[in-house]
Amino acid sequence: MKIAYVSYEVSPFAKAGGLADVAGALPKYIKNAGEEIYVIMPFHKNIENNFDISKFEVVKTDLIPNSHTHKSPFSVYKSYLEGSSVVIYFIKTDSLYDSKNIYDEENIFLKTSYFCDSALKTIKECEPDTNVININDWHTSLIPVYLKTHYLQDNILKKIATILTIHNIGYQGLFNPEVLNQAGLPNYLFNINALEYYGKINVLKGGILFSNIINTVSPTYAKEIQSEEYGYGLEGILKVRSEDLFGILNGIDYSIYDPLKDPHIFHPIESYEDKLKNKTSLQEYLGLTKDENITLISFIGRLFEQKGIDLISKIMDLLLLNDIQFVLLGTGDKKYEEYFATLTKLYPKKISINITFDVDLAQKIYAGSDIFLMPSKYEPCGLGQMYSMRYGTVPVVRYTGGLKDTVSEYNSKDKKGTGFGFHEYKEADLLYTLMKAIYFHQKRKDDWTNIFENCMKEDFSYEKTAKKYIELYKIALDKKRGH
Ligand SMILES: Nc1ncnc2c1ncn2[C@@H]1O[C@H](COP(=O)(O)OP(=O)(O)O[C@H]2O[C@H](CO)[C@@H](O)[C@H](O)[C@H]2O)[C@@H](O)[C@H]1O
């Protein structure tokens, strides 16, 4: 079986969030499990700034997408995923993918739709024996739409099965109906049984209706998105497709996130003592009071309500009455960026607010914190809690989506469990749970080292995940062939 894995972001080439981590890792493990797989992404401008592109091979030039009305030619560059032999193709065209923020809203429909049609052209030209295309989120959701309109009679493309992976249903790609013309797609798609959604075009809806199989990134989230609370308006069509909807938990790349070899962290972590060395080095690095006994709580992520940032901001003053330190790394909603920046001025030795995107600092924080906070409103899978556990940092989460599937409540009687959590999306519940975790950290040292050890023993490696994706690709192919 040969699979094309198509993503708008792939780590380390371009990363805005968790999708990049998955796209940069999962294909390697699928290949290790014996399948043929390659990746396609846009050639975002920042790739040129951060990588030596003279080492990339130019495999095609002057290609023009077949259906799209934007007829600028594109070239296909080829390289490999980090530390592997998995091929990655970059679609490079003049000036289209040159914004600093890859999801910059200006021309985003043009950029994503052009990418979808060009990806299909790339498959035809470079990998015509492809069997399955795994698309990801709304940015690549027009691929099955093109396949089921323009390419129904195409000898190569008509045989390919599609699977849509939903990493976040909160982002759907809503546009005015005129965009269909720009993409070169037929107007009849503006129809309630296709892409129409309350007078707009909903690109993710197209992905859901036109793909052979759909999956999301944890079993719990696969159930949740069929409800009004979590479906963001798409619960109805997801229920219609529930027989074809699966949930596969993401993994983390153990070859990169390795507490013994990670070059970003201060000290390799094997024991709790090593962990404390990382903690005091982090305190020093961030200009916080250096003290092993203070509970160091951290948050890394996009500063949006999905991540529970509103709950965190509501409890901050009460939380800071305790003997704790708070470290934040993230960018997002200006309202929260400003709120946290102001807080730094009030508690300079107790908090460190880093409004930036910094992969190196993220690793140091995962390794150096006592508690990692993830009180998400919804969380398709969540990678932060898994990275934390890998480095012996105890997660405090809201039990939703993938957080529910990966964190278990610590119980001091049987010494089992990896963290602490709450269910209702309420600031009082978050504060209570954090107080419990702080109590365990400061007063119950034996329990705390048990939790540390339980976290370090968890297995979130990608092998299991890759096997499940391969099963899903087979189901998609069977469906496509009408079995
Ligand atoms: N300022 C910053 N500096 C450095 N690194 C930063 C950073 N802000 C975030 N990151 C990194 O970005 C990644 C975020 O991944 P998550 O899975 O936690 O969330 P995200 O919502 O982006 O992903 C979506 O897709 C993933 C993948 O499927 C799902 O796990 C998740 O639930 C879903 O919302 C982590 O690797 C984190 O370290």
UniProtKB/TrEMBL annotation:
Glycosyltransferase as UniProt keyword: yes
Catalytic activity reported: [(1->4)-alpha-D-glucosyl](n) + ADP-alpha-D-glucose = [(1->4)-alpha-D-glucosyl](n+1) + ADP + H(+)
Keywords attached to this entry: Glycogen biosynthesis, Glycosyltransferase, Transferase
Associated pathway: Glycan biosynthesis; glycogen biosynthesis
Enzyme class name: transferase
UniProt binding sites for ADP-alpha-D-glucose: K15
UniProt cross-references to SUPFAM superfamilies, sorted A to Z: UDP-Glycosyltransferase/glycogen phosphorylase (SSF53756)
Record domain Glycosyl transferase family: where: 290-431
GO biological process, one term: glycogen biosynthetic process
EC number(s) from the headed UniProt entry: 2.4.1.21
Signal peptide range: none
All residue ranges annotated as the Starch synthase catalytic domain in the record: 2-239
An MF annotation (GO) of this entry: alpha-1,4-glucan glucosyltransferase (UDP-glucose donor) activity
Role noted for this protein: Synthesizes alpha-1,4-glucan chains using ADP-glucose.
PANTHER family: ALPHA AMYLASE DOMAIN-CONTAINING PROTEIN (PTHR45825:SF11), GRANULE-BOUND STARCH SYNTHASE 1, CHLOROPLASTIC/AMYLOPLASTIC (PTHR45825)
NCBIfam families linked to this entry: glgA (TIGR02095)
Protein family per UniProt: Belongs to the glycosyltransferase 1 family. Bacterial/plant glycogen synthase subfamily.
Stated name of the protein: Glycogen synthase
Organism for this UniProt entry: Petrotoga olearia DSM 13574
Top-level taxonomy: Bacteria, Thermotogati, Thermotogota, Thermotogae, Petrotogales
Gene: glgA
